[in-house]
Amino acid sequence: MNTQAQKHDRFVKALFSQPEKARQYFEDSLPENVLKQIDLNSLQVQSGSFIDEKLNNTFSDILFKVRLKDKKESCWLSVLVEHKSRKDRYVTVQIGHYIFSALLQQIREKKKPAPIVPVLFYHGAEKWDYHTHRSLYDSFGSEILSFVPEFDYIFDNLQKRSDREIMALSAKLWSGSMLLLKYARDEDYLVKNAGAIVTAIEDEEGNIIRQFIVYFLSLIEQKEKVMDTLSDMPEPVKGKALSVYDQLMLEGREKGIEENRRENTVSLYRNGVSVEVIATSFGLKKPEVVSILKEAGLNPE
């Protein structure tokens, strides 16, 4: 997974890691016929993954267990976060691999296999339409197609959701987050609509605010323009956003100071300055200087 994909992946996982936020997403996004069958009040975030090494560069997954209404059985809701920014004709092969690998994993663990409802979450810029697995074999007749496995999956393509539809979601945090994801590659849009997007965190508390702002700012080079917009916003959104921004800037400066100190430590040692003198100069302990030098591939005496 490349750095850009990791950034998107971390943000999506942060949203889904909170049961109440996940429940809000499923209420707004699952088809009615699925919602009628499951009890979202029983939704539980599950640790672990059904992703194997063959799918590492394709998806990451976020797992949930949910009970069926009026039954003792449970099923899995699996959100497959699409790493690629473009459509993939053979995504159904990958989803099929995921489903059967997950069932086999349950069997190996001596558990009764539970059905898996895959939700493919895509926010790339390229147009992509839902297609079935059997559509890959449209030149074959029904006699042969009967041997080809078929399954449904839920395709949440943010490019198919209009901005008006996104803004109408019952959970404001999801409205803002989906706009961020939908326009992650359109900096002009994000700068122009920064105020409307960040308003989504108005009623939020805790670490999700920081994660939202961190992700937002990571998408934008013109950070000063965004902060000018946010400075004109009413409280409490303004205070929350500027607080996270100031903290990020402080962390960046501290990181820069630390990196500069490490570079100077290595440079001084290479120019013949002793470990003891370097430690005194930078207010470090001798073992700290030795550790820095070893990380740089040096062997201080």
Key features of this structure:
single chain; 301 residues; alpha/beta; 14 helices; 50% helix; 13% strand
Plain-language structure description:
- Helix content is 50%, strand content 13%.
- It is α/β, with parallel strands linked by helices and 301 residues long.
- It has a five-stranded mixed beta sheet, sandwiched between helices.
- Helix 1 runs antiparallel to helix 10 (207-218) and helix 13 (275-282) packs across helix 14.
- The longest helix is centred in the last third of the chain and has 34 residues, at 237-270.
Mean pLDDT: 87
Helix percentage? 40-55%
Distance between the termini: 40 Å
Number of helices: 14
Bulk shape:
globular
- Taking pLDDT < 50 over at least 5 consecutive residues as the criterion, the unreliable ranges are none
Number of strand elements: 5
Strand order of the largest sheet: 1-2-3-4-5
Give a concise summary.
This protein is α/β, with parallel strands linked by helices and about 300 residues long.
Give the SSE map.
Blueprint: H1 3-16, H2 19-29, H3 32-35, E1 38-46, E2 59-68, E3 74-82, H4 91-108, E4 116-122, H5 142-145, E5 154-157, H6 163-167, H7 172-182, H8 187-192, H9 194-198, H10 207-218, H11 223-231, H12 237-270, H13 275-282, H14 286-295
Helix pairs in contact: 1-10, 10-12, 13-14
